[in-house]
Amino acid sequence: MKKLLVYLKDYKKESILGPLFKLLEASFELIVPLVVASMIDVGIAQGDKGYVGRMCLIMAALGLIGLVCSITAQYFAAKAAVGFATRLRHGVFEHIQKLSFSQLDREGTATLITRITSDINQVQSGVNLALRLFLRSPFIVFGAMIMAFTVDVKAALIFVVVIPVLSVIVFGIMLVSIPLYKKVQSGLDRVLGTTRENLTGVRVIRAFGQEPTEISKFDGENDALKKIQTTAGRISALMNPLTYVVINAGLIALIYTGALQVDAGVLSKGEVVALINYMSQILVELVKLANLIITMTKAVACGNRIEAVLGMPAGLKEYTAEELEASAGVSTGDAQTGHSGKSTGQTGLSEENAGSKEEETGSVVFDHVGLRYYEGGEEALTDITFKARKGDTIGIIGGTGSGKSSLVNLIPRFYDVTSGSVRVDGRDVRSYDTVTLRDKIGVVMQKAVLFQGTIRDNLKWGNESATDEEIYEALRTAQAEEIVRQKKDGLDEMIEQEGRNLSGGQKQRLSIARALVKKPEILILDDSASALDYATDAALRKALKEMPGDTTVFIVSQRASSLMHADTIIVLDDGKAVGMGTHEELLKNCSVYQEIYYSQFEKKAGQGE
């Protein structure tokens, strides 16, 4: 939680003035019982109405000044808390944007959303209350005790007993509550995750009639959250009754002692009233302090969760040449003793196919690459070796879950290899600054994602200086020009969030155009034409082939027709490259490719080709 306070640095003035004005208000409040005592002992006892009136005016002035101080303190506290939360939210969001895909997969979307919304709101409330009450309440508690000593030492000893007992109750409940509130937030993560999953997959759930199952699952997680919240709430709810019991016991003792002192002539009636007022002030402030501690307990638990996100190392580590050489030595040794011969036997590759480290611009080399998503899990890719030269079109095909997307995700370094290396322009991708590396690459994901804004705004993501002419050139290549021409406002047509006002095919074509506007050295199409009809798909492939410049293109597809004219087709099966070559070569030599191809075309027609 302490590390988050750095986001308060621009609100130092407000963080000082807020508590300061609260202390001023508290100081005036501590004077009021003495004014009341004076009014009783002098004004009322002597029947001096003028004196009583003057004391009433003084009390009104103290109240008015206290009100002004309170409002001022609230203004500064709110400004600091809201500003702090805004900066913290920006900081967390910016940090999340820098996290690697592996870290995002591990943490999960639901928990990150909870931490950037609910958790930060809790921390904001904690900061607001802390600035207003964290100094004020203890100040009044101990101030009232000190003022009681100025009235009567014997009676004030009751305060000395009551305050430590109350402190034990308050801090004991706090220590028990903090772990419970952490569990509450974790339970909220699970509920949010289930809710998000159900809303995202609502059509699938209804198609399979799984509404009762999902409702039952949600109810179970919601009930578990309710139980944790109820337990935490019950423990926190003990705070007020226990403090009331202790305070009222103190009041009884104070009244009894005060009565004896008045009877003995040691204390006046006004002084007894002042002591009771001080005890009442302690009661009120401790109730406030109890609520503050409950809020602060939640805020600390939430702050620790936010701190855990900020504590994740941002992005992927950039390796030095020495580190990469050392890891390459280990990887090569593993390959020689384990996988190298096997993979070569399966794919018919030799070390020459991998190329040397001195490759031309636009080239991509996979050298005995292995990938494992989670420690201890099975390999998603095993010993993949090939070279794509500048201007080549590489097709990647295979069954569902064979590792096609995993393979192309290694090129822009969305994930890091667990063995071997991936080189772009003759340089290991792990030695690149990620921005520099990804500036060379245009990626169209499996799921077409467009953002709220105009078509022009979406297409200029990769190249902010792109002209309308360049945008239309990319649209023509992506077979998307007609989409824009048909719109009333053309490039200024508004796209709704996630492209909800477009069809699947339109979103895919605009996503491809967005990548082409960037004019990348390497273009990756990750099954990005699945929603296109065969004619549009064929026109797209032809346009990509005729693009000016020598762009290296990787096409991932389930359709054999989309890859038939690629320079090299890589066939994946269970994370292994079981075939590599042209369409004609694979049709003769690769059984997996034959199975895929003949499942989509009649065998006679396939043989004729």
Which helices and strands occur, and which strands form pairs?
Layout lengths: L11 H35 L2 H50 L2 H7 L1 H25 L2 H16 L1 H48 L1 H6 L3 H27 L1 H25 L5 H42 L10 H27 L3 H4 L9 E8 L9 E8 L4 E6 L5 H6 L9 E6 L2 E2 L5 H6 L1 E4 L8 E2 H5 L8 H10 L3 H5 L8 E2 L8 H14 L4 E5 L7 H12 L6 E5 L11 E6 L2 E6 L1 H7 L1 H10 L2 H6 L1
Parallel strand pairs: 3-10, 3-11, 6-9, 9-10
Antiparallel strand pairs: 1-2, 1-4, 4-5, 7-8, 11-12
Helix pairs in contact: 1-2, 1-5, 1-10, 2-4, 4-6, 4-10, 5-6, 5-10, 6-8, 6-9, 6-10, 9-10, 16-18, 20-21
Task: Give an overview of the whole structure.
The structure is a single chain. The chain is of the alpha/beta class and 609 residues long. The protein folds into 3 domains: 88-310, ABC transporter transmembrane region fold, CATH 1.20.1560.10; 321-440 and 520-608, Rossmann fold (3-Layer(aba) Sandwich); 441-519, P-loop containing nucleotide triphosphate hydrolases (Rossmann fold), CATH 3.40.50.300. Helices cover 65% and strands 10% of the residues. The chain is built from 22 helices and 12 strands. The chain has helices at 12-46, 49-98, 101-107, 109-133, 136-151, 153-200, 202-207, 211-237, 239-263, 269-310, 321-347, 351-354, 404-409, 434-439, 455-459, 468-477, 481-485, 504-517, 534-545, 583-589, 591-600, 603-608; strands at residues 364-371, 381-388, 393-398, 419-424, 427-428, 441-444, 453-454, 494-495, 522-526, 552-556, 568-573, 576-581. It has a 6-stranded mixed beta sheet with strand order 6-9-10-3-11-12. The protein has a 4-stranded antiparallel beta sheet with strand order 2-1-4-5. It has a two-stranded antiparallel sheet with strand order 7-8. β9, α19 (534-545) and β10 (552-556) form a beta-alpha-beta unit. α4 (109-133) runs antiparallel to α6 (153-200) and α5 packs antiparallel against α6 (153-200). The chain is elongated, with a radius of gyration of 36 Å. It starts with 11 loop residues before the first helix and ends with a helix. The model is unreliable at 330-358 (pLDDT under 50).
